[in-house]
Amino acid sequence: MSLCPRISLKPEVTEYLKSVFLNKEVLAAVGHQEAESRFQKLLTCLTHPPSYTCVRASTHLASLDEIKHKLGEELRNQQMCSSSAEQVSLQILPHPQIPDVLLLPVYGPRSVKQLVSEVVVGAQCGSAVLRGAHVFAPGIIASPKYMKAGDVVSVFSDLEGKCTRGATSFQGKRVFVGNGVAEMDRSSIFCKNEPPKGIGVRMVEPLYQSPPFDGVLPNLVFLQNLPSVVAGHVLGPRPGERILDMCAAPGGKTCHIAALMGDQGEVVALDRIRNKIDRINQNAQILNLRSIKAFHFNSTRAVSTDPTQKTEGPPFPPESFDRVLLDAPCSGLGQRPNMANTWSLKEICSYQPLQRKLFHAAVRLLKRGGVLVYSTCTVTLAENEEQVAWALDTFPCLRLQPQEPHIGAEGMLGAGLSPEQLRLLQRFRPELSWDETEMTAPLPCRASRDTIGFFIAKFLKN
């Protein structure tokens, strides 16, 4: 059994996405055969990790060369202590265009022999394994009846969420992700008294080989998808500005904004989930960033109706911020690797109204002459280009702006935007270069194309 050739979706969701990627504008531009080919490549590439691991370096604390050297030493030490049956050559390369990004090649899919003893994990856990993680005990759904610590097992991901927790075997729709060594007995994993903690299976022969980053130089490197790093640069924060990150958890982009400002100014981070605020503050503390102020608050209500309000936190008076990042909640259909999504079409389509509420608040909170960056990690038109068309029609004060850097593709046809407007947008489309990324092109050449699916729009408020 090889890696899942296509992402597992509900049939209604597959048909919806097909209608997006084979819309009338696309068909008129490239023809039915090319449009269909791109759509099928998208469904396939989503189940595979990008061909590199992207690490954002804390260049506000040390130079990129120094961080690269320390990271190399740390990973070599980790490799020497590893029980992995196979060692791979360690490469760390700077991104050719993004000054605070380091790239590490991912090797795979590799030829790994499946074993008789099998462990089944959830789809989310399986996706993490494909990106270099070990199997943590809470992710284990089924294991052999007499599994003991030290047993060598094959790990499979349950694609449809149908495996019963505590089962001893599972024959449903699943996919092989590699072999590992059990770190815990079955009785400890499925103990009824308390939830299990720690590593349940240490991967020694993963299908995709990449270094695990758990606890590696936490103050100097931050695991982050390349398009997310690009979004921070596109926002263009400057020292002394006041910047709002509207949907900030877990704080990767928040911390990047503060670092790009040299920690001079104020970065306000909002999130509607209380326990995620602690995560933002922890990341800020680890990265030695003092300009971040995080608040538990629903950003749709972040505009104050009281012009005399003087409190430090939300809600804020209109036109309080020089720049606003709206990295909006979305359907997340661009995430890779993602072997399965069990959401209904109703759930997939539920984000557009929320995104528009957030957009209204963002525009009101932005100063005249300020910059608004809107981004998502999904591939639909409704959450991306259609939102841009709606925003330009709804807010006459907004104008699309060029993006720097612009390393992704232009916007996708289908929302009625002009060619000039589409060129100002940035859509990361791994399906456009999927054949090429499976070849042996040098890593820096393919790094900007073999990404997660992502979208960025930059506006100026006149």
Automatic annotation (TrEMBL):
Gene Ontology biological process: RNA methylation
Pfam families: Methyltr_RsmB-F
Residue ranges constituting the SAM-dependent MTase RsmB/NOP-type domain according to the UniProt record: 146-462
Active site: 377 (nucleophile)
UniProt keyword terms in alphabetical order: Methyltransferase, RNA-binding, S-adenosyl-L-methionine, Transferase
Gene Ontology MF terms in the entry: RNA binding; RNA methyltransferase activity
CDD domains from the UniProt entry: AdoMet_MTases (cd02440), PUA_NSun6-like (cd21150)
Keyword Transferase assigned: yes
Record-listed S-adenosyl-L-methionine binding positions: 247-253, 271, 327
Coiled coil start-end: none
Domain of life of the native organism: Eukaryota
SUPFAM superfamilies assigned: PUA domain-like, S-adenosyl-L-methionine-dependent methyltransferases
Keyword check for S-adenosyl-L-methionine: yes
Record-stated family: Belongs to the class I-like SAM-binding methyltransferase superfamily. RsmB/NOP family.
UniProt protein name: SAM-dependent MTase RsmB/NOP-type domain-containing protein
Protein's organism: Anabas testudineus
Species lineage: Eukaryota, Metazoa, Chordata, Craniata, Vertebrata
